[in-house]
Amino acid sequence: MEYTSTVALGGWRQRLRGLSVRRETLEDNDLVARTLDGDVRSYEELVRRYERLVGRVLYSYARREISVEDLVQETFLRAYDRLETFNPDYRFKTWLLAIANNLGVDTLRRRRETVEFNPEIHASTSGGPEAEAVEADRSRSIQEAVGKLPEIYGVPLVLRYSEEMSYAEIAEVLGVTIPAVKSRLFRARNMLAGRLEVDEEAV
What we know:
Blueprint: H1 2-20, H2 28-36, H3 40-58, H4 68-81, H5 92-110, H6 128-147, H7 151-162, H8 167-174, H9 178-202
């Protein structure tokens, strides 16, 4: 009887420790491990951390009949179903973005049409109403120019300049080599500069 009480008390202590953990302070891999142990709230924390980034990557693949929100939800559902295959030697972030990108590619294969791409690849500045107006105009110009790029160039731009990911991380997300990433970024920058130049001449 005494043995049973001790075991039960130990079990309650373990459950209380689990309840008191601040999940927002845990590392991604810790949250993955807790999720695999049945802690759904740990996966909710992973969703909270990365849903905006996943949405930005998937924006170029969205269209009228399927929204960014739908693609984001599908990404996290796929990741949850495959969580046991995640290798903790790698970063959860890149693993998740690879799933998102593959979903986007699959979506494009099913629906071949161009879509608007609107990443935030510029830093906001402050300097009064005039400076803000100039920055807003430049922002719109960049967004429109990037919107005309094929998604294979737009997505690497977001990952590199907005998310500041390394070439190796981008290569892992896209499933290509590092030289291929560099080549796409080089061509994307040239294409973007050319489109912006044409737009400025047209004004």
